[in-house]
Amino acid sequence: MAAMTRSFDLRTVSGWFRLIALAEAVSWAGLLVGMYFKYLGTPRTEVGVKVFGPIHGGIFIAFVVAAVLVGIAHKWGVGTWILALLASIVPLGSVIFVMWADRTARLTLAGGSAMVLQPGGAVPETT
């Protein structure tokens, strides 16, 4: 449980990115369910799309902005940037990208530290 708490540590840039990626995936799922009921469900209704469409749109933009900030903080290469941006388009891709980025140490800095958010900006974590 401690590893999961550390993963979503909102004092770190990577923790915020993970949380936004999870929210993006959940909003995608809500939008997909809404589209099912709009086009195939019985009764047909647009409520799900009207609710989850704007929510997903806002979280999608937050994911892209967070990916840019995390990519700068962690000095990602071009390939990682492309994968992050593609992950924002594919349903549930954001979570898959975060899992891959964690496994390949793209969400930790050299030496295993994380960027911690401080009032003056993000600084390397000292533990």
Strand fraction: 5-15%
- Straight-line N-to-C gap: 19 Å
Indicate the mean pLDDT. Answer: 83
Order of strands across the main sheet = 1-2
Helix content: 55-70%
Give a count of the beta strands, DSSP E runs of length 2 or more.
Answer: 2
Tally the helices: what do you get? 5
Condensed summary:
This protein is mainly alpha-helical and 127 residues long. It has helices at residues 2-7, 13-39, 47-74, 78-87, 93-103, and strands spanning 115-118, 121-124.
Question: What does this 3D model show about the protein?
Answer:
It is a single chain. The protein has 127 residues and is mainly α. The protein has one domain (13-104). The protein has five helices and two strands; from the N terminus they run αααααββ. The chain has a two-stranded antiparallel ribbon with strand order 1-2. Helix 2 (13-39) runs antiparallel to helix 3 (47-74), helix 3 runs antiparallel to helix 4 and helix 4 (78-87) packs antiparallel against helix 5. The longest helix is centred in the middle third of the chain and has 28 residues, at 47-74. The relative contact order is 0.16.
Features:
single chain, 127 residues, mainly alpha, two-stranded antiparallel ribbon, 5 helices, 2 strands, elongated
Q: Any chance you could write out the topology, listing elements then pairs?
A:
Elements: H1 2-7, H2 13-39, H3 47-74, H4 78-87, H5 93-103, E1 115-118, E2 121-124
Antiparallel strand pairs: 1-2
Helix pairs in contact: 2-3, 2-5, 3-4, 4-5
